[in-house]
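wait is this the right file?? whatever heres the structure
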């Protein structure tokens, strides 16, 4: 998918579970992920190749993102309204739309995601697409777990996945 973007700005966000890097254009957030995430540098290089240079700075979307993530982490917010511009294949975008539909505080299995998006045999492909999501928390791939309840496959690390799920369950924001 091609994204039309202008004025790419980046900022860093300190969270209870690690530092994040966020990049947004005039149209929305392209990246919001942990700085120690595997493959983040490759993704950032691809964005610059496709869309142009990224400069340190703020814009209205990064300001909103910062406010909404702060509210999420301090347990006073449950909704993200900042526009998102995920970049991926049609299959990846379909999987990420599904992730976006999982309610806060709830989980789904990779098998459920495959079945509910139309192909029960696509479990491994679902996991791969979820792993290529670089808009953490807002596109909540942390809410997808193994069928047996095990925590698997989170680009930010299993400890962060556990923390996020516990946070949502304990926040009292959901349900």
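ok assuming it is, sequence goes like this
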């Amino acid at each position: 998918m091609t994204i039309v973007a202008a004025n790419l700005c980046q900022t860093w966000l300190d969270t209870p579970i690690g530092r994040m890097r966020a990049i947004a254009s005039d149209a929305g957030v392209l990246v919001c992920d942990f700085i120690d995430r595997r493959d983040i540098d490759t993704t950032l290089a691809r964005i610059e190749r496709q869309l142009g240079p990224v400069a340190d700075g703020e814009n209205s979307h990064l300001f909103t993102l910062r406010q909404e993530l702060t509210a999420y982490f301090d347990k006073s917010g449950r909704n993200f309204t900042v526009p998102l511009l995920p970049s991926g294949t049609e299959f990846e975008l379909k999987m990420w739309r599904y992730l976006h539909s999982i309610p806060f505080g709830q989980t789904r299995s990779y098998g459920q995601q495959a079945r509910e998006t139309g192909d029960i045999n696509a479990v491994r492909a679902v996991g791969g697409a979820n792993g290529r999501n670089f808009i953490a928390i807002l596109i909540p791939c942390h809410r997808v777990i193994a069928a047996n309840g095990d925590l698997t496959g989170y680009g930010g690390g299993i400890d962060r996945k556990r923390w996020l799920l516990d946070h949502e369950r304990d926040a009292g924001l959901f349900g």
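The CA atoms of residues 3 and 87 lie 7 Å apart. so i think its the right one actually
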